[in-house]
Design a protein that fits this description.
By secondary structure, the protein is α+β, with helices and mostly antiparallel strands. The protein has 4 helices and 6 strands, in the order ααββββααββ. It has a 6-stranded antiparallel sheet with strand order 1-2-3-4-6-5, with no helix packed on it.
Length: 146
């Protein structure tokens, strides 16, 4: 069962390389504006006490939410919709660690960078989230990344 899950993750990763991009984990909030313009995506910003959520609606119908810390850094991303966003773009410098973990069938949590990626779904209904544990703002729990 575990092998099937990681093989599916690798297939999803390869599929994702062909779809449009969103902002980048570990980059500043300016990456949200750049991607919005390039993707012709709608943008909704919701401020909360501990972070802001920048939600992009891609033309495909997929929603990408970027969690921005008070310091202006994207510390987490999540997605939901009929297509998986370009994980290479979304994960940025963390993408290689994700691919390596999937390829070796290791849990991404084994990555020393603290990268956590959870994905799932089925055709036309995908979801996922990614964050770096060390980048979570003080008082923010992983469960708050939806």
């Amino acid at each position: 069962m575990r092998m099937k899950f990681w093989a599916g993750g690798l297939a999803l990763t390869l599929f994702a390389l062909c779809t449009p991009a969103a902002a980048t984990l570990g980059e500043d909030a300016d990456s949200v504006r750049t991607d919005r313009a390039r993707l012709q995506a709608g943008l909704e910003i919701r401020d909360a006490a501990k972070f802001a959520v920048h939600r992009l609606l891609l033309p495909s119908g997929t929603t990408v939410s970027e969690y921005v810390s008070p310091a202006g850094m994207v510390f987490a991303v999540s997605w939901q919709g009929p297509e998986i966003p370009d994980l290479q773009q979304v994960l940025g410098r963390y993408f290689a660690a994700y691919v390596e973990a999937v390829k070796n069938r290791n849990a991404p949590s084994a990555d020393p960078s603290g990268l956590m990626v959870q994905t799932g779904g089925h055709m036309r209904a995908y979801f996922g989230r990614a964050y770096v544990a060390g980048m979570l703002p003080r008082g923010v729990l992983a469960e708050e990344i939806e």
